[in-house]
Write a structure and sequence with these properties.
five-stranded antiparallel beta sheet; single chain; 7 strands; mainly beta; about 100 residues
């Protein structure tokens, strides 16, 4: 079962951006955003799973791996690097219309 925890108490959500991350590892990862006050995001990402999520522009996606003895931070990626580009959105919209 996948677990997702998401909550936001931000007053201004106009700075949210759509982000995309693929777990290209063979390990199950835990993705978290913890650097934004009053914002919490946590998601389990299985190997090869794709994740779309919205986040403030200054957020950082932390990737953790639960090892045999402890949880370890393996990467921290600025969400601005994970932002879905407009061209990608147009391609997805075109594909969606072809499927529908």
């Amino acid at each position: 079962m996948m677990t997702q925890l998401f909550s936001s108490r931000l007053n201004d959500i106009s700075n949210l951006m759509l982000c995309y991350y693929t777990n290209g590892t063979g390990k199950t990862l835990i993705a978290r955003i913890t650097n934004i006050p009053n914002w919490r995001f946590e998601r389990i990402i299985f190997p090869q799973e794709r994740l779309f999520f919205e986040a403030p522009s200054q957020a950082k996606l932390e990737l953790h791996h639960n090892g045999e003895t402890a949880m370890s931070l393996i990467d921290s990626i600025p969400c601005s690097y994970l932002k879905v580009q407009e061209q990608m959105s147009q391609v997805q919209e075109t594909l969606w219309h072809q499927i529908a």
